[in-house]
TrEMBL record:
Transmembrane domains' residue ranges: none
Enzyme Commission code(s) on record: 2.5.1.18
UniProt-recorded name of the protein: Glutathione S-transferase
Organism: hydrothermal vent metagenome
Transferase in keyword set: yes
Length: 234
């Protein structure tokens, strides 16, 4: 049986990490047998990140490589019904979410001073107070450097949240009234997109992010409720 190693539930979500939620949602969508093991230290993973899986003695990290491995070994491709053009569109949306939108979530949790205390308590709440302060501050500085190097950390807070809103509106417009992003059946894009929208909706709902406009909240709600894949996320 496949064992999925991931973070524990947090922030009112099945998992604090959108990538972990994506991976478990994919496993459910593909109807695969699996178990989960929650760990708090991503450094224990083979690439220093979560999630990763163990299967038949194999250890695979990174959601893209995990999914590729499962497609090859289990002969199950959620995108098998898509033609080459549809796969290109789907891949473009996935890249937008994982290589761009993801950083706006990282900024909100780790850099925005209004929300950092909540994130620190959730991610480091089990640490002794002194260790908690030292470790969390070191990792926060690393996150700030990563954001700056990626580019999004060079923008103002308002500009970063504007980018998040723009991405979500694009998703909502493309989803429209379809049951799933690419049509009548769930695909890998659904596992990626809906979980990102749910994550951001959770941030804006629980933290009352005033810099996110009401249109963005409507967009999130539309993506969350319209796509039937949300029931796979637990």
């Amino acid at each position: 049986m496949i064992t999925l190693f991931q973070f524990k539930p947090a922030l009112g979500l099945p998992n604090a990490s959108p990538f972990c939620m994506k991976m478990e949602t994919y496993l459910r969508m593909a109807n695969m047998d699996y178990s989960t093991t929650c760990i708090n230290n991503p450094a224990k993973g083979p690439k220093g990140k979560l999630p990763y899986i163990e299967d038949k003695g194999e250890v695979i990290a990174d959601t893209s490589f995990i999914i590729e491995y499962l497609e090859n070994t289990c002969n199950h491709d959620l995108d098998s019904s898509l033609d080459s053009t549809e796969k290109a569109v789907s891949d473009a949306f996935v890249r937008m979410l994982e290589e761009f939108f993801y950083w706006t979530i990282l900024y909100s949790r780790w850099i925005d001073n209004r929300y950092w205390p909540d994130a620190r308590n959730i991610f480091f709440g089990d640490f002794p107070p002194l260790v908690k302060n030292i470790v969390s501050n070191i990792l926060r500085k690393q996150a700030k450097r990563r954001l700056y190097e990626q580019g999004i950390g060079r923008h103002t807070s308002g500009q970063i949240y504007q980018i998040a809103e723009s991405n979500l509106v694009t998703l909502s417009d493309y989803l429209d009234d379809k049951p799933y992003f690419m049509g009548d059946e769930p695909t890998k894009l659904d596992a990626t997109a809906v979980l990102r929208a749910i994550t951001w909706l959770n941030l804006t709902t629980h933290r009352k992010e005033k810099s996110i406009s009401s249109s963005c909240l409507r967009c999130n709600s539309g993506v969350n409720s319209t796509s039937e894949v949300s029931h796979f996320s637990g």
